[in-house]
């Protein structure tokens, strides 16, 4: 067995022993040993994509939905650079990824050799661990090095602080297995090696890890009446915060991707916090926050009003975007003598009921699907067990503004750096992982620019695993988010910010040979969501009309809660 093949097979075998079950491969020559090792391993499901950026976001979606590290393989050169946007998202949102970038051997670097760039530390501080693996040699000790390194890399992806890890692997020719290679993964026919290539007996990992469960000591919260619980974006258990609310009567202000918008959570908080009169009458004494809040401008502004802000999180890596934190703790406990039925609690629930009624009445007054109504109805009508990915920009904000509290569905999004790149690929990966783990259907709500930005995510070759995924695209012919910002008045607004493109999603669907539906009426949404496989549903809207409707919604809520 040649050294490059041995390195790849040993590394992949050890990663599988650690728990690797999914890998995404972008084609290339220098990465041949890794690609062949992955596709031949019986315990790893592989996915092949022609575009490295799409491949990286596919891996991100797989890892985000499954909460397990996914391996990502590419050849040398710009291929590895195309992973970078997904690496940044994985870093900021705490998604475990294992980046295996193939590279030219040291003797070819800095010589002008084809497809050779400096890949050392390519992703900077965005990775939890970087290792230049070195060229494989037929020498004693190599197997222990490769296997222990695989275990260290796997451990570095999480769980204490999940994120991406980068191994840069230099491969010398030959890249293909020897002609006499028997085809087995790691049988002992590699007699020319100075030591056995196989790992520990019984399928055990080279380095065993026993992590004893450790419940952090919670901070006992003070017995205040005017408390608020803010649940921002993040992959954490929302139940303790809903239970805290039930014990204290403190309202839960939950962003959609917190998955805490259930039970009595305040679904209209975004509109309530935009009512100056309401906010002035609801100054909090204490705010408890978890996750990463920041989907609206109103919520960070509200955090500044609290005398005390307790952040639940890692003391070295916690979210505090407006620097109002007074305490950072690993967990919280309700006051010993909490009283849930208070005037403060009733005031929030009454305002929620009034705002919810105002929002629903206005949205239901027109049967033509608007962007906020689409977000509300989609979140409400997908079946229990479903996964919903919300695209950045307006889709996630419309969900935040219009989605009612509900149980039974998981909402995710790329909120780490909030880019629109890779949205389709992320949704495909998330749906594939969700369904592999026994979940229901997958749905995505994205904008037209996100779709055009990642059309390659729809291109799935024959024989590749395919998701059950309905991609609902809001097509307002450009960048709708800018229509609600100060840029709208600039004379060059339409060209520079509006960016109209004139592309129908039907043409995009035809490119990928996918089923397509154009949806106009709200009553037709349940039928449109039916179907199998990967499919596209287009809803055409107007940017100006949508911005006006959002202002009308805020006005309706202002009137509904005035004096409450």
Describe the protein's architecture and organization.
- By secondary structure, the chain is of the alpha/beta class.
- It folds into three domains: 3-174, Rossmann fold (3-Layer(aba) Sandwich); 219-352, 3-Layer(aba) Sandwich (Rossmann fold), CATH 3.40.50.1220; 366-560, Rossmann fold, CATH 3.40.50.970.
- It contains 19 helices and 19 strands.
- Helix 3 crosses helix 14 (423-436) and helix 12 crosses helix 13 (394-402).
- The protein is globular and about 85 Å long.
Gist of the model:
It contains 19 helices and 19 strands. The chain is an alpha/beta fold and 564 residues long.
Question: How many independent structural domains?
Answer: 3
Work out the radius of gyration. 26 Å
Amino-to-carboxy terminus distance:
77 Å
Overall geometry comes to globular
The largest pleated sheet is described as: 6 strands, parallel
Total strand segments: 19
Name the descriptors:
six-stranded parallel β-sheet, alpha/beta, Rossmann fold, globular, 3 domains, 34% helix
Topology:
Layout: H1 3-18, E1 22-25, H2 32-40, E2 45-48, H3 52-66, E3 70-74, H4 78-81, H5 84-93, E4 97-103, E5 129-132, H6 142-156, E6 164-170, E7 219-220, E8 227-231, H7 239-248, E9 252-254, H8 269-272, H9 276-281, E10 286-290, H10 298-303, E11 308-312, E12 327-329, E13 332-333, H11 343-364, H12 371-381, E14 387-390, H13 394-402, E15 410-412, H14 423-436, E16 442-447, H15 448-453, E17 469-475, H16 493-498, H17 505-511, E18 516-518, H18 525-529, E19 534-540, H19 543-561
Parallel strand pairs: 1-2, 1-3, 3-4, 4-6, 5-6, 7-13, 8-9, 8-10, 10-11, 11-12, 14-15, 14-16, 16-17, 17-19, 18-19
């Amino acid at each position: 067995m040649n050294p490059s093949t041995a390195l790849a097979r040993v590394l992949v075998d050890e990663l599988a022993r650690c728990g690797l079950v999914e890998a995404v491969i972008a084609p290339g020559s220098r990465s041949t040993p890794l690609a062949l090792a992955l596709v031949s391993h019986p315990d790893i499901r592989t996915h092949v994509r022609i575009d490295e950026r799409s491949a990286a976001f596919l891996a991100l979606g797989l890892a985000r939905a499954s909460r397990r590290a996914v391996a990502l393989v590419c050849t040398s050169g710009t291929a590895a650079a195309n992973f970078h946007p997904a690496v940044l998202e994985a870093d900021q949102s705490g998604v475990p990824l294992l980046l295996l970038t193939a590279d030219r051997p040291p003797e070819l670097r800095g010589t002008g050799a084809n497809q050779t760039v400096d890949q050392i530390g390519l992703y900077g501080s965005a990775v939890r661990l970087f290792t230049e693996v070195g060229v494989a040699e037929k020498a004693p000790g190599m197997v222990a090095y490769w296997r222990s390194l695989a275990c260290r890399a796997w451990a570095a992806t999480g769980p204490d602080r999940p994120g991406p890890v980068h191994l840069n692997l230099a491969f010398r020719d030959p890249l293909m297995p020897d002609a006499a290679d028997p085809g087995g993964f790691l049988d002992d026919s590699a007699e020319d090696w100075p030591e056995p290539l196989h790992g520990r007996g019984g399928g055990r990992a080279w380095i065993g890890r026993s992590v004893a469960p450790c419940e952090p000591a919670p901070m006992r919260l003070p017995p205040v009446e005017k408390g608020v619980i803010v649940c921002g974006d993040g992959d954490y258990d929302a139940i303790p915060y809903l239970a805290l609310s039930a014990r204290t009567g403190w309202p839960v202000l939950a962003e959609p991707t917190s998955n805490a918008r259930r039970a009595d959570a305040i679904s209209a908080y975004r509109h309530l916090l935009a009512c100056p009169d309401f906010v002035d009458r609801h100054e909090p004494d204490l705010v408890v926050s978890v996750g990463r809040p920041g989907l609206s401008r109103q919520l960070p502004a509200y955090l500044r009003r609290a005398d005390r802000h307790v952040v639940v999180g890692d003391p070295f890596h916690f979210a505090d975007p407006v620097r109002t934190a007074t305490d950072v703790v690993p967990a919280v406990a309700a006051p010993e003598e909490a009283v849930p039925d208070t005037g403060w609690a009733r005031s929030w629930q009454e305002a929620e009921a009034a705002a919810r009624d105002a929002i629903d009445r206005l949205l239901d007054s027109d049967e033509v699907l608007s962007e906020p109504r689409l977000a509300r109805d989609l979140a409400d009508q997908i079946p229990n067990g479903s996964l919903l990915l919300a695209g950045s920009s307006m889709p996630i904000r419309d969900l935040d503004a219009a989605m009612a509290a509900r149980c039974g569905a998981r909402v995710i999004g790329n909120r780490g750096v909030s880019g629109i790149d890779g949205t389709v690929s992320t949704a495909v990966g998330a749906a594939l992982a969700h369904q592999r783990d026994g979940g229901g259907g997958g749905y995505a709500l994205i904008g037209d620019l996100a779709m055009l930005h990642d059309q390659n995510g729809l291109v799935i070759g024959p024989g590749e695993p395919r998701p059950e995924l309905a991609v609902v695209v809001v097509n307002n012919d450009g960048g709708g988010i800018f229509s609600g910002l100060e840029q709208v008045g600039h004379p060059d607004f339409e060209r520079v910010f509006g960016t109209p493109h004139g592309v129908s999603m039907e043409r995009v669907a035809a490119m990928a040979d996918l089923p397509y539906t154009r949806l106009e009426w709200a009553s037709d949404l349940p039928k449109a969501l039916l179907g199998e496989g990967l499919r596209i549903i287009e809803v055409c809207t107007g940017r100006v009309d949508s911005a006006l409707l959002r202002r009308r919604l805020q006005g309706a809520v202002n009137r509904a809660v005035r004096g409450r």
